[in-house]
Amino acid sequence: MFRIVLNRAISAAILIVIASVFSFMIIAAFPGNVAGLIAEMRGGFVSQEVVDAVAEEFRLNDPLALRYLHWLGDVLQGNLGVSLRTGENVSTAMAQRLEPTIVLVLGGSVVTLLMGVMMGFAGAMRPNGSIDQLIRVIAVFNVSLPKFFLAAMLIYIFGVQLQILPTFGFRGPLSWILPCIAVGAVPGALLSRLIRVALEEAMSRPYVITAKSKGFGRRHILFQDALPNIVPVFLTTFGMNIAFVTQSSLIIEPIFSWNGIGAYFVEAARFRDLPVLQSCLLMFSILFILVNLAVDLIVMLADPLQRRARGA
Amino acid sequence: MNSTTMPPLEVDDFTVTLHTPTLSVRPVDGVSYSVQAGEVLAVVGESGSGKTILNMAPLDLLPVGVDAEMKGSVRFEGRDLLNMSTSELEAVRGGGIGVVFQDPLSALNPVRKIGRQLTEGIERHLGLTPTQAENRTAELLTLVGLPDPKSRMQQYPHELSGGQRQRVGIAMGISGEPRVLIADEPTTALDVTVQAQIVELLKDLQKRMGMAIVIITHDFGVVSGLADKVAVMYAGRLSELGSVRDVLIDPAHPYTRGLLQSVPSLTVPMDTKFLGLPGQPPNMAYRIEGCAFAPRCIEARADCHVNRPSLLSVPHSASDRLAACPVIVNQFA
User: Fold this and answer.
1) What CATH number labels A98-259?
2) Disulfide: which of A146, A253, A285, B58 matches A19 by Cβ 3.0-4.6 Å?
3) Domain chopping of chain A, boundaries
4) How does residue A2 score in pLDDT terms, banded at 50, 70 and 90?
């Protein structure tokens, strides 16, 4: 058991290193003269000397591998560099913006979970019944809807027409509701379809006939017999949805004027603020990898068949 | 309702038609029999002869997606299972009628502990509290020959051997203290040595609990070891029905004779020619006129291909015996 956990941890570490290479490469791969760009952003008169000085300062003339190691060393010491646009320390700026993003990811995951489980089970209670059909339509509608449009609709309905929920800024739990729904609705719809299909598959297994032979009805069998069997599938998909939700923060945070890491990321991309862009990319990658690692380990622990097959 | 005289299970002209989008088949065709309290009936026949559907369809225990149309009646203690509401049928399943399945590995839920899979049925049908149900489960596991029941209850199905799993399956079948136990080839998926133990166990439980058992099998060893009465099925119809002694020692129906001849024997001389049953069972997708066995039958007359034979009483039998073969019955007379 310990060996498996160790193996997973090592492969996650390797993935993180690869992600760091890609995050770093963004500067190297950036089109045009990076030194000139940085000099321009700093303002003032841009002469060849200034550009050369910038190149020297950012070690742009060093070999790529050496530059990577320098950068990695800085990152490991918690030094993510300085924003080109504002001159802020990137680590400090990110720490300040962490709270809204955490709220959004957790809240969005809760919405995903509630929607997925409720709609998935409601559909599986009576396959192809009217509720199942309705939920299918809602799910397809949701999945095909662009997130920003959904967010705009939520703002229009709850903020403009009904005026019951705040639509602007990160100001207490009430203001969390709409962004979390906007972020969680699409993965929730996807998750509901998956749960519905996985439950139907589980309900066609012989152990369901056994449960029936003991005199139990569909509801009991769904929850007691089918549910434990879909836990691995469910957890894996839910883990992927957390990644999906995190990624949505890029779109949803700016719409609701939340000053989170997603908004920071978008802003950095818009102003070509390379150190910020690099850092955000790295953080998101690490988050994805760690969430996936956690989900894999939880699935392994939750499934008695796997536990034994791997010699717990 | 007088259960001392009324047979717990009475099947009367029972017909099942399975519908698929492209064709309809009739795996059970006009079957009638009854099982008395404390009696063991073996239903024998080849694979595909309809013996499992005959017993599972009335309980609505066919695999998901099978669309079965049922006619006739299957009465449990006088009440027709085919006319029961879903909730009435749920009360009968696991309570009045217990079921043991063929493959104990797939029949048990792989991710639930054995204890819980047993206690839930006991709580449901015997109205016990969770603690009482756990104690009852431990008793049951001991009864079916599994030592150290408390630790067994904490295990998952894959942690047991095939024989142990089937003992759990049997414990599950009898957990609601049923009056009728339906066992669908309970020994087929097991090793030969284990098969004998399971037959012994079923015999022992039947004596202790006094329940009627319907055992579905194609193994004549199981029939002779366990059953009082035997019903031979061919192509969805009953070809012979009688006491085990009559049917096994002196089979009347040509199909039963052929079936018994096709059981390899160790007691005949080495160079004896092995007699199988020539031909194949009919395609059930077509309506069968006349006797279903006629195309393979050495006794067949022209009439056999036209008129469907009904079950006739066979004269000179030790007990009541019926065979669906007028040719043979006339020879006996």
Assistant:
1) 1.10.3720.10
2) A285
3) 1-92+273-312, 98-259
4) confident
Same domain, B47 and B155: yes
pLDDT digit string (tens) for B153-170?
999 999 999 899 999 999
User: Whole-angstrom Cα distance, residue A274 to residue B328?
Assistant: 97
Count Cβ–Cβ pairs < 8 Å, chain A vs chain B: 88
Residues of chain B neighbouring A228 (CB-CB closer than 8 A) = 109, 111-112
- Residue B66 included in any domain: no
- A42-72 core/surface letters (b: 16 or more CB in 10 A; e: else): eeeebeeebbeebbeebebeeeeeebbeebe
C-alpha to C-alpha distance for B208 and B230, rounded to whole angstroms? 22
Do B121 and B88 share a structural domain?
yes
B120 part of contact set with chain A, CB < 8 Å = yes
Q: Which of A203, A209, A214 sits opposite B121 (nearest CB)?
A: A214
pLDDT given for residue B75 in this prediction = 95
Distance from CA of A209 to the nearest CA of B (A): 6
Q: Find the range with the poorest average confidence among A25-29, A65-69, B299-303.
A: A25-29
The pLDDT, as a whole number, for residue A310 is 45
Which residue of A203, A210, A217 is in closest CB contact with B64?
A203
Q: Is B306 within the bounds of a domain?
A: yes
Q: Identify all chain A residues contacting B63, using CB atoms and an 8 Å cutoff.
A: 204, 206, 209
CA distance B308 to B288: 9
Which pLDDT value is given to residue A143? 81
Residues in B closer than 8 angstroms to A204, CB to CB, are 63-65
B156 token code pair: 């998952």
Q: How far is B332 from chain A (nearest CA, A)?
A: 43
Rounded distance, CA A111 to CA B259, Å? 63
Asked if B41 and B169 sit in the same domain, the reply is yes
* Total tally of structural domains belonging to chain B: 2
pLDDT tens-digit readout, B180-214: 999 999 988 888 888 888 999 999 999 988 899 99
Which of B109, B113, B125, B166 should be substituted to probe chain A, the one whose Cβ sees the most A Cβ atoms within 10 Å? Answer: B109
Give the β-pairing of B180-184 and B67-76.
unpaired
ipTM of the modeled complex: 0.89
Does residue B99 sit in the same domain as residue B122? yes
Mean pLDDT of chain B: 90
Paired strand residues for B242: B230
Range with the lowest mean pLDDT among A110-114, A293-297, B138-142?
A: A293-297
pLDDT of residue B2: 47
* Inter-chain CB proximity A212 and B158 less than 8 Å: no
Task: Choose the closest CB to A207 out of B63, B108, B176.
Answer: B108
Q: What is the CATH number of the domain that holds B211?
A: 3.40.50.300
For residues A4-8, average pLDDT: 86
Stretch 202-221 of chain A: residues touching chain B, C-beta under 8 Å: 203-217
Burial class (CB in 10 A: 0-12, 13-18, 19+), A186: buried
**B185 and B300 housed in the same domain:** no
Chain B nearest-CA residue for A207: B107
Whether residues B157 and B249 fall in one domain: no
What is the extent of the structural domain holding B195?
A: 36-51+84-227
Question: Is residue B75 one of the residues assigned to a domain?
Answer: no
Whether A206 and B107 lie within 8 Å, measured CB to CB: yes
B154, closest residue in chain A (CA to CA): A304
> What pLDDT sits at residue A312?
36
Chain B residues closer than 8 Å to A229 by CB: 109-111
In a domain, B13, yes or no: no
In contact, B281 and B235? CB cutoff 8 Å = yes
CB contact under 8 A, B158 and A207: no
Strand order in the sheet with B40-44: B97-100, B180-184, B212-217, B40-44, B229-234, B237-243, B322-323, B312-313
| Cβ-contact A271, A88 below 8 angstroms | no
Express each pLDDT in A161-187 by its tens digit.
888 888 888 888 888 889 999 999 888
